[in-house]
Amino acid sequence: TWSPSTESLSGHRAAVRSLVVRTATGHVASGGDDNTVRVWLADSCRQLFCLRGHSDAVTRLAFDDDAKRNRLVSASRDQTIRTWDLGVGSCTRVLASYPDAVGHFLLRDDVLLVGLADAAVHVYDAVGLEERARFAEHNGAVTCIDYSGEMRLLATGGSAIAAISRLKETG
After folding, report:
1. Can you say how many angstroms the Cα of residue 124 is from the centroid of all Cα atoms in its chain?
2. Per-residue pLDDT tens digits for 86-100
3. What is the DSSP letter of 3?
């Protein structure tokens, strides 16, 4: 049986919309309607950073799998994606202000995949954050994404359709 021991992470001034845990370092990140991203140490419940920069609710978060990059990625209703350096607690990059809301994003292996309400999926290389491809296989918002780096297989879904794409190096 489990015996939960619960502690609150106080700090957000409005609803929390996204949470992510980084097991390797014991970090927890939260994003909310107060337009902030907060990074915590799970074992002590101590807040390390309050990251400001978004102008609307933070809806999605992901830690970079590569610990050397020590990076967190956030998406917001302000139609931007931001990367944060967790060594110093500052924004290092703002990806394009998209014409539509970010429906979903996934940071895995060597790619950042961004699904938009305009039916497009943008593929970025995770290191330099350069756009490598754009797919428009959907007839509406992209609401879910998964990716297998080993198979170079991209699965996306939304608006009553699912699609599978194979990512190929072109040069």
Report:
1. 13
2. 999 999 999 877 777
3. -
